[in-house]
Amino acid sequence: MSSIKVVIDTNVLLKTLNRINFEFFIYNSFIEQKLDWIVSNEILIEYEEVLTSFYSVKTSNLVLEILCNANNVIFSEPYFQWDIIKIDPDDNKFSDLAISANANYLITFDKHFDVFKEVEFPKLEVLSPSQFFKVL
Nearest-5° angle of CA 90, CA 95, CA 101? Predict the structure, then answer.
């Protein structure tokens, strides 16, 4: 496994699947095993729902099959619910997992995660895809 562990928000996942999008580098980095992708059951369910509605059942099944069989995917469940994101509590599943699994980064476009810039504890490094590109 690689040394960079990430949790990827659904809004970024959608962009990583299209070769013409800048964010496709994330998918390539994953395939090249430059990163470990951390997922939980709850996140996989959200991925499936959103991928099915945005793309198709076939695409959703393919993506989930890749994620469930890749050796650089870490399956984990949050051991604590921090409830830090008040604006959209549904986003907490991503930050809770990232904190619990000791992820290096949470990758998102969502500004709700900006609250982590103000929080002293727990620390979570939240990056946009373009910021993450610079890290890789």
Answer: 130
Domains of the chain: 5-135 (3.40.50.1010)
- Which residues are registered as beta bridge partners of 38? 74
| Amino acid at site 92 | N
State the pTM of this model.
0.91
CB 82 within 8 A of CB 99: yes
Distance CA(125)–CA(10), nearest Å, equals 17
The pLDDT assigned to 91 comes to 73
Burial class (CB in 10 A: 0-12, 13-18, 19+), 128: middle
